[in-house]
Automatic annotation (TrEMBL), chain A:
Residues 52-266, 350-545 form the ABC transmembrane type-1 domain. This is ABC transporter permease. The keyword Membrane applies. Keywords: Cell inner membrane, Cell membrane, Membrane, Transmembrane, Transmembrane helix, Transport. It is found in: Cell inner membrane. It is a multi-pass membrane protein. The chain crosses the membrane at residues 57-81, 93-114, 142-166, 203-223, 243-269, 296-326, 346-374, 386-411, 417-436, 470-490, 519-545. It comes from Jannaschia pagri. Its main location: membrane.
TrEMBL record, chain B:
GO terms for molecular function: ATP binding. The keyword Nucleotide-binding applies. This is ABC transporter ATP-binding protein. The lineage of its organism: Bacteria, Pseudomonadati, Pseudomonadota, Alphaproteobacteria, Rhodobacterales. InterPro entries: AAA+_ATPase (IPR003593), ABC_SmlMolc_Importer (IPR050093), ABC_transporter-like_ATP-bd (IPR003439), P-loop_NTPase (IPR027417).
């Protein structure tokens, strides 16, 4: 029963990617039900699209700059402040923001940085402007607001991944040695701890890079419009009522894949270059402007956290605002009118969203626990290669394989809730695995040996000892799974063929409409749907183990 | 007398609980040994000397090195060399780069390379510069760690059970090397240890916590 699970998990992760890519390549070369015969016609159409150079440039730029930005700020804050009270405060501020879905974060951010947003209202108050300034801040043609939004949203992710990696590099003693040798905090950390940490978070960094280049939800909300980023354009072609454009979409997706592959190759080259420069830097014995960099790190991280929090506050306030004219910093009055108008539909969709999320998470959890237990009982590990399988669906652009997954539609598997759930599993499973594998493997197996000595079967040990003892990490993994699922936009949109509505698809769809009160209600709804499971994951173990001191983590 | 390292009525508290009290003067070239059971605050004392006492600990009293008050100085400005039981060579760098990391700033490229080569030759490790530190034997790694520290021209040396992971023969040899070098550099040494033989070899005063 347990033995086939690791193989099944690999199939669940790799199968959709491979089938999906095949389902993208075929129409791109003119084959399949929407094709017009073998040929490169679809590619010619993509290359003829006048927006292509700009769209590709903005995709690559926003991806690379946002990754460098988030990685740089995360490194600066760790280098300059780890172990201080300031750092703990920032960590506490940033951790919950990890759970906030990309769409809700982007919508909130738009409320803050738009010409009519909170930031512009400050000078407007002071200078007596009565209309918002005529500036193209949101959806600027070079994707700068998109880049800023991605930095703010990816910073908590990279920071927590790097924090988790620190334990592997003995950073405390390494830093003590480094500083005793006369190196400053920031320069010393960059020279001795960063290389070790980066080696551990290399794959997550690449996930951020690929997501930055290819995401559709944030780019629709914050990114440029004419032309949009390449992925957004591919999605538009995909959803066009003109079926002939499906093959153009497929060809566009493959252009996107090529751009991503080239950027990843350049990134790997840049890693080598940085390593060589780092060696030269170590030989030179030079330091860094410590005070400036520490101040820069804490201000950028603080600003980024503040922007996201202000965005969430703006969403909440707009959902409750009666009247809120331009230069005013707060609404005239608060009312529940928007909630009674948009609330019932939002809550109904939230029900669907959470049902999909719970199913996808439960399926992922079964596979993950199955894999980990098989590893424990039979030593079935796929080693380092397994990690690549986990990251595969996260490293291949979603637009490149999701549309192709509807290929089996010929076989009678049409778009719908079932396919959406299956699609979510592909993206939820890696995160559930990454979150649960550490605690699962760290469980004290001497307990299993003692129990076996008392006559307990392996199944009994799993159900009665291991899983109950791992309640807290299992629930945390579930919360992460639900948050990931609640945030999935493109899989829901494409695999549901527009017929499956979730909080993510509705929130992104509303962004174009500009009804701020509706955006407020839906944005708050999506954020709460992603955050509530984390509250439960903290509360339930505390309640269950209230009389078990050793089980309550600090 | 302003030479050496002075610990004047140093008291360390963990929260409100007094952890240790120490009053000592370590002249240049002398080794002060500190012994005590685990939990007696030996490592905390070293952290305090380094200037990175963990939150939750408080310290009173004065630390002076060569007449300079150390309190308030960040670790990197104190110039106290630190050796642990593990050599803690940086695994992503070559042996030579590990040593270059210890060099104080200044001098041109050739000069710095020459100093690193000389340091390697000094502990009979000529030609080991390009090696991966993970391929060194325990004794070789300990020697590289010592030279890395000495290249930073420390004003005092702090040893945190530095010989406990070496086997017997190597331990005597490394012990002699470290103490000889500290004496030659005329710097005060604080040695925290479990091992009476360390104290005997150090030949200096002993404080038991």
């Amino acid at each position: 029963m347990l033995r086939p699970l690791p193989l099944l998990t690999v199939l669940v992760l790799a199968g959709p990617v491979l089938i999906g890519i095949a389902g993208t390549v075929l129409p791109a070369i003119g084959l399949g039900p929407v094709g017009q015969g073998l040929g490169l016609g679809p590619f010619h159409q993509v290359l003829d699209w006048p927006g292509l150079p700009r769209a590709t440039a903005v995709s690559v730029l926003s991806g690379v700059l946002s990754t460098l930005g988030a990685l740089g700020v995360a490194a600066l804050i760790l280098a300059g402040w780890q172990g201080t009270a300031t750092f703990r405060a920032l960590e506490r501020l940033l951790s919950p923001l990890l759970a906030v879905p990309h769409a809700a974060a982007a919508l909130g951010l738009a409320f803050v940085i738009a010409p009519s947003g909170w930031i512009a209202r400050l000078p407007a108050q002071a200078l007596g402007w009565s209309v918002p300034p005529d500036l193209l801040i949101l959806q600027d043609p070079w994707g700068l607001s998109l880049t800023a939004g991605l930095i703010a949203k990816e910073l908590p992710f990279l920071l927590l991944m790097m924090l988790a990696a620190l334990g592997q590099v003995e950073h405390r003693r390494r830093m003590a040695i480094t500083r005793s040798l006369g190196h400053g905090r920031v320069a010393g950390w960059m020279k001795t701890v960063f290389p070790g940490v980066y080696a551990q978070v290399r794959l997550p960094v690449m996930v951020v890079l690929v997501y930055g280049m290819t995401n559709v939800d944030v780019a629709t909300i914050l990114g440029p419009n004419t032309p949009p980023t390449l992925s957004v354009q591919v999605t538009r072609w995909m959803l066009d009522p003109d079926l002939a454009l499906r093959s153009v979409a497929a060809a566009g997706a493959l252009v996107q894949v090529a751009a991503v592959a080239m950027t990843l190759a350049l990134w790997v080259g840049a890693e080598r270059l940085c390593a060589a420069l780092g060696r030269a830097w170590i030989w030179s014995g030079r330091g860094l402007p410590e005070t400036t960099l520490r101040a820069l790190g804490v201000s950028l991280a603080g600003l980024s956290a503040l922007a996201l929090l202000a965005g969430l506050a703006a969403l909440a306030l707009w959902s409750l605002a009666a009247g809120w004219r331009f230069p005013d910093l707060a609404p005239e009055a608060l009312t529940l009118r928007s909630w009674s108008r948009f609330g019932p539909e939002m809550i109904a969709v939230a029900g669907t969203t959470l049902a999909i999320a719970a199913t996808a998470t439960l399926l992922s959890l079964i596979l993950v626990i199955g894999c980990l237990e098989a590893e424990h009982r039979f030593g079935l590990t796929v080693g380092q290669r397994a990690l690549w399988f986990l990251y595969l669906p996260l490293l291949v652009p979603q637009v490149a394989f999701l549309p192709g997954l509807l290929l089996p539609a010929w076989l009678g598997v049409g778009p719908g809730t079932g396919v959406v759930i299956a699609g979510h599993v592909v993206f939820v499973l890696p995160y559930v695995f990454l979150s649960l594998s550490g605690p699962y493997r760290a469980w004290d197996t001497r307990i299993a040996r003692v129990a076996a000595g008392l006559g307990a079967t392996p199944d009994r040990i799993l159900w009665r000892l291991r899983l109950p003892m791992l309640l807290a990490p299992v629930l945390t993994a579930c919360a992460i799974g639900v948050a990931v699922s609640v945030g999935q936009y493109l899989p829901t949109l494409l695999l549901g063929a527009g017929r499956v509505s979730t909080l993510a698809t509705e929130a992104v769809a509303l962004a174009a409409g500009g009804n701020r009160r509706a955006i407020g209600v839906w944005g708050v709804g999506q954020s709460l749907a992603a955050l509530m499971p984390f509250v439960l994951a903290l509360a339930i173990p505390a309640l269950v183990f209230r009389n078990r001191k050793a089980m309550v983590r600090d | 007398m302003t030479e050496g390292l002075h610990l004047d009525r140093v008291r360390i508290f963990e929260g409100a609980r007094p952890l240790l009290e120490i009053d000592a003067r370590v002249p240049p070239g002398e080794v002060l040994s500190v012994m005590g059971p685990s939990g007696s605050g030996k490592s905390t004392l070293l952290s305090h000397l380094m200037g990175d006492l963990a939150p939750g600990f408080r310290a009173h009293g004065e630390l002076t090195l060569e007449g300079q008050d150390l309190s308030g100085l960040p670790p990197e400005a104190r110039r106290l060399g630190l050796l642990y039981q593990d050599p803690l060579l940086f695994p992503h760098l070559s042996v030579a780069e590990n040593l270059a990391f210890g060099l104080r700033p200044g001098g041109d490229r050739t000069e710095r390379r020459n100093r690193v080569e000389a340091a390697l030759a000094d502990v009979s490790l000529e030609g080991y510069g390009p090696r991966d530190p993970a391929t060194l034997s325990g004794g070789q790694a300990a020697r590289v760690a010592l030279m890395r520290t000495l290249l930073s021209e420390p004003r005092a040396l702090l040893l945190d059970e530095p010989f406990s992971k070496l086997d017997q023969g190597l331990r005597d040899q490394t012990r002699r090397l470290v103490f000889d070098r500290a004496r030659a550099a005329r710097i005060p040494v604080v040695l925290v240890t479990h091992d009476r033989a360390d104290v005997v070899a150090a030949g200096g005063p002993l404080i038991e916590l």
